[in-house]
Amino acid sequence: MLNHKPKARQTLDTEGRSLALWDVVEHQTKANQTKEKVASKELNDCLESQCSMKDAYISMIRKDKDKMEKIKKTGAELQGRVHNDFQALHHFLQVEEEAMIEELKREQEEMLQGLERHLEALQVAIRDVEKNINILRQTAGSTDQSVLVELPKLNSRSPLQELNINLNSFRSKSIAPLQYIVWRKMFQHLNPGPSPLIFDEDTAHPSLQLSRNKTQVIESNQMTSYLCDTKRFLQCVNILATEGFQSGSHYWEVDVSNNPKWDLGVALESVNRQVRVKLCPDNGYWTLRLRDANQYSAGTQPWTRLTVITSPCRIGIFLDCEESKVSFYNADNMTLLYSFSSGPRGKVFPFFSTCVSEHGQKAQAIRILHFPFE
């Protein structure tokens, strides 16, 4: 006899399986919807990221193209400036060359004309002498004794002397140190030419001593008496030059041979000279410094350490007021050491500091160089 489940039980089981299946389907549907949302979000995020990256690249391309245009423009300006500077030198040299050649031609022509006149005079003198010789021979060969009583009348002229031409003096013009001579003259036409600065004694720290011509300064063990003046540095062994600048471009050189430490550059006229401050642009100073004989730094905030292979004996400072730039050079070979692209605006003075000597160390002078005589 077969055992059959009741019909009500069969219906319940069927409904249970249907509900379970529905739950599975609903759960799977929700899971699929969640995955679709996640996938859609990831897709949108990825698309947005790629679009942002594309925009960034387009922006970089635009900036690179702008930089290329600026480089081309700056390069053209620099090439023009170089061309103009060399044209000025070429013009000076051409004028000097033409003037010297003209002078040589003039002296040569004067000597040749003098010799031609002397040759003509000698030819005339020879003809006169030949006439005299003929007269004397005719007189000597005459049989008439009355003719021999006295000498016949001869053509008389002052005897000509050998013309003195100083050929060595003329030759010396061509074997002279011509390039050096022109180099000396060129200094008067350089722009900017080396400024013949002198130290301003009224700004000197009391422990600084100046040479008689005020181009050399050195630290002294003795303090000099001074008037209390806002122009004078009192806390640091600093000093300024007498001449300040607020327009144009200017260049000067300082001899720092054997100095283990110093500060050089420019300072605003308005700097407070009664206090000790860090030498940096924020305080009105644009400087280069040396410490321990071989540690070079630019006076930034903080210091910018520089790599200098060969210690310079001379430091060149170039101030371009129009461009607001201050640059420092190894004047021995004109290698750029450092340049402040954001320089001073307003009147500045060349600035110098011997720094305080270390204990037991001999103080060393710094000297402003004047050209072309040094």
What does the model show?
It is a single chain. The protein has two domains: about 20-190, no CATH class; about 200-370, Sandwich (Jelly Rolls). A hairpin with a 5-residue loop joins strand 7 and strand 8. It is of the alpha+beta class. It is about 40% helix and about 20% strand. The longest helix has about 130 residues, at about 5-140.
Shape: elongated
Main-sheet strand order equals 1-2-13-4-9-10-11
**What is the straight-line distance between the termini?**
136 Å
Poorly predicted ranges: none
Tell me the number of structural domains: 2
- Tell me, rounded to a whole number, the average pLDDT: 85
Strand content: 15-25%
Question: Structural class given helices, strands, pairing?
Answer: alpha+beta
Q: What is the topological layout?
A:
Blueprint lengths: L6 H134 L26 H9 L2 H9 L21 E3 L5 E4 L18 E3 L8 E7 L6 E7 L16 E7 L3 E4 L5 E3 L7 E7 L4 E6 L4 E6 L7 E6 L12 E3 L6
Antiparallel strand pairs: 1-2, 2-13, 3-12, 4-9, 4-13, 5-6, 5-12, 6-7, 7-8, 9-10, 10-11
Tags for this entry?
374 residues; Jelly Rolls; 7-stranded antiparallel β-sheet; 6-stranded antiparallel β-sheet; 3 helices
Short structural summary:
By secondary structure, the protein is of the alpha+beta class. It has helices at residues 7-140, 167-175, 178-186, and strands at 208-210, 216-219, 238-240, 249-255, 262-268, 285-291, 295-298, 304-306, 314-320, 325-330, 335-340, 348-353, 366-368.
